[in-house]
Structure formats: C-alpha cells, structure tokens
Amino acid sequence: MISNSLVSIERELAGYKTWLQEQGISEATQRAYGSRVRQLLVYLERERGSLEVLREERAFLKAIFDYSIYLKETVKMRAGTLNNSLTAAESFSRYLGFGGLNLASLRESTDFSPGRTLSSEEASRFYQAAERRQSCRDKAIAMLFLKTGIKLGECNALDVEDVVLAEQSGVLSVHGGEKKPARKLVLDEETRDALAAWLSQRSQSVGSGKEKALFLNARGDRLAQAGIDFIVRSIGWNANLNLSCQMLRRTFLVRHLQQGQTTEHLAQLVGHKTPQATRRYSVGYVLGG
Asked: What is the average per-residue pLDDT within 110-126?
C-alpha cells in the first residue's frame, strides 16, 4: 500500500509540474526543478511529519532556511548545486502563491576553487563496484560518468535515440542546452557494452514503449536527477568512497589534461563554452587531491 506521505508528495508535485508547463520554460528546466522540489518535499515530510508548512509563507521560509542548512552541513552539497536547489525552491514558492521568496542570503559563493578528484586507485575501486552492480542501468550510468565526463543534467536528459551503437563503434549525442548543438562523444568498448546491456534490458522494462528517456525508473518514467545522483553515490559507498557526479566529471577533466589532452579539444568534449573554462582544471589539481 502506498503511504499517505507519498500520496501527498506526488499530489503536490503533480500540481507544481502542471504549473511549470504553463511558465514557458524548457523541458530540461522543468525536469530539474521537479527533481529538486521532490527532494525538498521528501525532506519536509520526513523532518516535519507533514506538508503543512506549504500553507503559510513564514513557516515555509523557515523550513527552507532549515533545508539549506541541512544541504550544506549534512549533505555537504556543493555551492552550485545548493544554489540550484534554492532557485527551484523560489520557483516552488511562486507556485504556492507566496510571490516568490528571495533566498539570496542563503546562497553560497560559486567562486572557482579546486575540488577533490579521484586517484587512479579510487577510480579503479569505483569501476569495480559498478561492475559488481546487478542493475545494467546502474552500470551504464556509472560508465558514462567515469568515461565521458558528462554532467548530471545531461545524463538525465539523454534519450534512447541519443545512443548509436555498432559492432565496434558507438557515439553518444549529448545536449548541453536548447540553443547549443549536440556534441558527439565517441564511446569506448566498456561503455558501449554497458549501454548495449542496458538497452537490451530496458526493452523489457515498464514504460519502455512510450517513454523516450534512456534511463527509466521503476515506474517506467524518466529517471530523475536525484535518482541518478543516488545511484552514483551508492556505487561509491559500495567502494568505500564519498563521491558525486561532479567529482567524476572533475576527475575526467584532470586525468585527460594530465595525459596531454589540449584544453581546446577537451572543452569540446565536456561542453565548456571556452577553453579558458577548461584550463582552470590544469592548475592546483592532482588526481586524488
């Protein structure tokens, strides 16, 4: 039986998603906001025991303040991701009729500073933990982050048609934004095999006939960013590693720069607007640091 709390969350989320569709924003942004607001609602239900704080503006603002502290101190969320969650909360407040809360004081500075990367030994442990995973979907997700350096949002936005596999070749089309042309990533053998295994399993999954998304959840819908993030983190936990999708992307960048890849070519691979954005990763980084 589905719990009352889950019913409340899904009902609130359904109304918010309908409202988002009316705001004229992209589907990718709608999915991102929906995923982040779902995380917020789950937190509120767990910590407050209900969603009553959604009915009164001051109570909601206090709850968002507590939520931001939770994300900073317990989840250890990076500044950019935290700010994205707060932006989604501001959007949700407008849906609730609160006129749009200004959460600027809760935001964190996103000035660039070196973040941690995986050492070769840690990357190997993550790979081995992914290989032990029974789910073909989870293995494929892990390989994509480890071998291509894609972003969490890009992984979430992938559709089946973005994967083209042949006997000894494979290409992934990654969409970085509505106004950007898709970038084409050549897949190595291990990533091709992982995706092929998942596509075979996916064809037997619930919703595979109607849903165009590459990665599906148990209901047959597009797997949310929060779900992808949890899969990556849980594989890390199995390898005794505390990591994130962003850490895998950062490791990909630093490893390829240290192997002599040019910043111009690598910028194209990872979707940076300029080589200067990529060049930042060549200073102050060591693998495993």
From this structure: 79
